[in-house]
Design brief:
Layout (H helix, E strand, L loop, with lengths): L11 E4 L4 H11 L5 E4 L15 H16 L3 E10 L20 H14 L9 E11 L5 E12 L15 E3 L11 H5 L10 H13 L2
Parallel strand pairs: 1-2, 1-3
Antiparallel strand pairs: 3-4, 4-5, 5-6
C-alpha cells in the first residue's frame, strides 16, 4: 500500500515554544524556506502540560495545543539528553531537571554527580545522546512527525558558552568541541553550508524533505 503524501508547509507557521534558545534555533532552520514564523510567547499562548511519556508525544501535545489556540499550523520540538549510565535520565525530563528557574548548570552538576556515584568515569562509561522529536500540527487535526538523534559523550567540566541547556557537557562523536563550544552554523547549519550535525537539525532535514517545496 502506498504511504499517504506529506502535507506541505507554506505561509505562516507558529513555533510552539517559550524557550528563547530553542526558538532561535528553529528560526534559523526555517529561514531558508521563507516561512513567516511567529512564536507562542509572541502570541501570549499558555504552555500546555507535557504529560506524554516520550519525546514524540510531548512534541505532539505542544503542537496540537498551539494549532488549536492560534488557528494556525504549529511547529513544536521536544528534545532532551539521554545518558546511558543513568538509565536514560534525564530524558523527557531534561528541562525539569533545571527547575523552574532554568538553572542548567545545576542540572549538569546533578548529572555529573550521579555519573560519579555510578562509577562512570571513563568516556566509554559516559555515553549519551540528544533526541529531537518534531511535530507540525494543523488546526484540522493533521500532524506530521519526525525524530532524530546525535550520539556523544558527557564531559566535565562544562566547556563553552554557546548554545543552551546541556550543550556545554555534550561532546558529539567524532568531534573535538562540545556543542557549547560550537558556533550555531557548525552545530545546526544545514547543507550545503553546514552538516546538519545536531539532533534538531537532523530531525528538521527529515521534515524539510517531506513538507517543504
Amino acid at each position: 500500500m502506498r504511504a499517504p503524501a506529506h502535507r506541505r508547509i507554506a505561509g505562516r507557521l507558529l513555533i510552539a515554544t517559550h524557550n528563547p534558545g530553542k526558538l532561535g534555533e528553529m528560526r534559523e532552520l526555517l529561514a531558508p524556506y521563507k516561512i513567516d514564523a511567529i512564536s507562542a510567547s509572541d502570541m501570549g499562548l499558555p504552555e500546555p502540560d507535557e504529560s506524554g511519556t516520550s519525546f514524540r508525544a510531548n512534541a505532539r501535545i505542544k503542537a496540537e495545543a498551539a494549532a488549536k489556540a492560534a488557528d494556525l499550523p504549529a511547529f513544536a520540538d521536544d528534545s532532551g539528553l539521554v545518558v546511558d549510565a543513568l538509565g536514560g535520565a534525564p530524558g523527557i525530563y531534561s528541562a525539569r531537571w533545571a527547575e523552574p528557574d532554568k538553572n542548567f548548570l545545576a542540572a549538569m552538576e546533578t548529572i555529573e554527580q550521579q555519573l560519579r556515584e555510578a562509577g562512570a568515569t571513563s568516556p566509554a562509561q559516559r555515553t549519551a545522546h540528544f533526541v529531537s522529536a518534531l511535530c507540525v500540527a494543523w488546526p484540522d487535526g493533521h500532524v506530521e512527525e519526525f525524530e532524530a538523534r546525535v550520539d556523544g559523550t558527557i564531559v566535565w567540566p562544562p566547556r563553552g558558552d554557546k548554545g543552551f541547556g546541556y550543550d556545554p557537557v555534550f561532546l558529539p562523536d567524532g568531534h573535538a568541541r562540545t556543542f557549547g563550544e560550537m558556533p550555531s552554523g557548525e552545530k545546526h547549519g544545514l547543507p550545503p553550508k553546514g552538516k546538519g550535525l545536531s539532533h534538531r537539525a537532523r530531525a528538521f532535514l527529515k521534515l524539510a524533505e517531506a513538507c517543504f517545496e
